[in-house]
């Protein structure tokens, strides 16, 4: 009798206490983690300011410049900007030369910040908040290539004055004003397959895009 009870106890102990695992594999982690940074801590009506798409790239992998070279596709962002805002094109930092066998490509490894000028409308209400949203997409490669994408968002208050942002200002200025930036390989027209890689704009493009750091942070 005792042996029968013990056997029953062992059988019950072996049963799972919760629902059985479905056996589905976890989705792979992204090779590139992205976020939007801002050069300033507030939006000043009628002023142009800079934001940056930060890419933290897994060791051994790389993303691509506007002219990717023999292979690849550049990063792009499709924007959903508030009414009246104008978002310019990426001001591409100087790339690395990436050789894989006989092929030469141009791109970025480790970390890169891609600066982008944004102009706010003059009639935006002070005291409100402005939120920029976008869908970023890029190709990341090692021995194989993986297309990735992610939603990005940046929300800033609207005020009469702005100061440099503690996290974003230095990184954006460094990326956009690198002394080697203009000595990089000459850009060529993006291939047809990369036609969506340039950042679409909400509204018209600013007539002039000041260099990060050249914009006065105080209003007036």
CATH superfamily: Thiol:disulfide interchange protein DsbD, N-terminal domain
- How many H/I helices? 2
Number of beta-strand segments: 10
- Using the coordinates above, name the CATH class: Mainly Beta
Domains (count): 1
Q: Biggest sheet: strands, sense, closure?
A: 4 strands, antiparallel
Low-confidence stretches: 1-24, 181-210, 214-220
Radius of gyration: 24 Å
Mean pLDDT: 78
**Structural class, judged by helices and strands?**
mainly beta
SSE pattern? HEEEEEEEEEEH
- Helical content (DSSP H or I, runs of 4+): under 10%
Q: Proportion of β residues?
A: 35-45%
At CATH's second level, what is the architecture? Sandwich
Shape: elongated
CATH topology (level 3) name: Immunoglobulin-like
Strand order of the largest sheet: 1-2-8-5
Distance between the termini: 93 Å
Q: How do the strands and helices of this protein lay out in sequence?
A:
Blueprint: H1 2-14, E1 32-38, E2 48-57, E3 63-69, E4 76-80, E5 86-87, E6 96-100, E7 103-108, E8 111-119, E9 129-141, E10 145-157, H2 169-176
Antiparallel strand pairs: 1-2, 2-8, 3-7, 4-9, 5-8, 6-7, 9-10
């Amino acid at each position: 009798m005792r042996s029968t009870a013990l056997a029953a106890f062992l059988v019950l102990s072996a049963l799972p206490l919760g629902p059985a695992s479905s056996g589905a594999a976890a989705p792979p982690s992204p090779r590139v983690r992205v976020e939007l940074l801002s050069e300033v801590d507030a939006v000043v009506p009628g002023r142009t300011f800079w934001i940056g798409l930060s890419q933290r790239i897994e060791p051994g992998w790389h993303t691509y410049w506007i002219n990717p070279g023999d292979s690849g596709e550049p990063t792009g962002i499709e924007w959903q900007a508030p009414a009246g805002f104008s978002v310019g094109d990426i001001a591409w930092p100087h790339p690395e030369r990436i050789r894989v066998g006989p092929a030469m490509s141009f791109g970025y490894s480790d970390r890169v910040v891609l600066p982008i000028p944004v102009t706010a409308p003059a009639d935006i209400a002070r005291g409100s908040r402005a939120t920029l949203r976008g869908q970023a997409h890029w190709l990341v490669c090692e021995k194989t290539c993986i297309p990735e994408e992610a939603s990005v968002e940046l929300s800033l208050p609207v005020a009469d004055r702005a100061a440099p942002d503690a996290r974003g200002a230095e990184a954006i200025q460094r990326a956009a004003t690198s002394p080697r930036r203009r000595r990089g390989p000459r850009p060529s027209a993006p291939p047809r397959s990369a036609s969506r890689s340039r950042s679409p704009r909400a509204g018209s493009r600013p007539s002039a895009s000041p260099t990060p750091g050249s914009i006065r942070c105080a209003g007036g």
